[in-house]
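TL;DR need structure tokens for one chain.
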Amino acid sequence: MKTFYIPLLASALLAAACGQGAQQFDIDNTKPVTPDNRVIYQMNIGAFTPEGTFAAAGRQLGRLDTLGADILWLMPIYPRGHKMNSPYASMDFTKVNPAYGTADDLKGFVGEAHRRGMKVWLDWVPNHVAVENRWVAEHPEFFTKDAHGRMIHPHGWGDVYELNYHDEGLVEAMNSAMRQWISVADVDGFRCDYVSSPTIPVKYWQDIIAELNSHGKTIEFLGETDISNPENRRIDSCGFDYDYAWDFQGELARKFNDSDNADSLRAICDRLLAASAKVKNKRMVYLTNHDQNYNDGGNTLKDFYGDNRYLLTVLEFTFHGMPLIYQGQEIGDPDTLNYFTDAKVKWHLADRKMLNTVRTLVALHHTFASLSATAPVEYIETAGSQVLAYRRGPVVVALNLGREPAAVQLSGIEAGIYQQWLDSRTIGSGPAMADVKLAPQSAIRLQGKGYAVYVKKQ
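>> reply
TL;DR here they are.
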């Protein structure tokens, strides 16, 4: 089959132009300077290519390698229940969705990712399975029951039944399936769905995470919850490597569609830092994923964040945590994707300003250890209510939430020569770098809803 979107996206990737005094520079194919400088990429195999297969997605890994994806989170790859065709309603955790290919095809995909230095995490759905799953008839003891002995639909989700982790047979069946994918396909980790479920004991996670990491290969775990939330603090002892900065994204989505209030944004950022200091794990930060993009009526980046979507993308990659790219986010998230039907990403609708911004930000995040997941943040005073600025080591970031241009003094920065990595005024034409002289008393100009990133030269 033709992968018709490749030339269109490639032309966007190769487009570059230099502003006055700027030089074109190569920001592709970078690798993280530390493991804490990685970027995670969420992919639905069925949506990522027109073919919707492991083989076709594997042929696109060079493009993701060029972008700089370090971890590939694959949405559920298992056969689906037919009632709603949800990828989160598994028929069999030991098999792959035949529409995607075979287990050998998955193994080939993982092998190609490894050859390029990328890790692969599977989406794991421990709380429930499809109502058509063979366990319903063969192992009714695997399921929780109500007072009348009926299997439970968690949250009223009518296409799934809830699993019973007090049954040793169920625990072993689930653990065996996880071991299988490590052994057969050499996967590197799991994004675990709904880990805040009250029916999954903390001890279960403690045991399986420790066990899977006891055989010589590091297996990483991302938990789908905000562990900093007081309701989920029990999960802090489970051993997850990452959780979702869920409350952070929720606040941004509710308040920053068109806001120009930098103080409000700083307060949200402060709450992220305070919450992160309370948990043992690192955080995954995100502006969108499959839930935000499709569920609850569907919301693209533009729907959620309006013209702030570009500068908030800069914030995502430079402020705190490990940034997530949801498939298509790098081209501007042009449409909602029904993941029940594996609706295809519209790669031909690439927003070059967003694409070039993301490309540059990935390279920046990879290159400077001061942008690692937990490195400190220092705010810079700007004397403007619409501009948020901060420093992480040699990296200086300025975001103008206002609609009008702003001349901003970055009080307290060290005077010297800086490399300007990112300028919202020119990035649509392509990545370009310029040396600029900055001092606390000198002003930088930011366009309305604009952004700039500088790195002090040693």
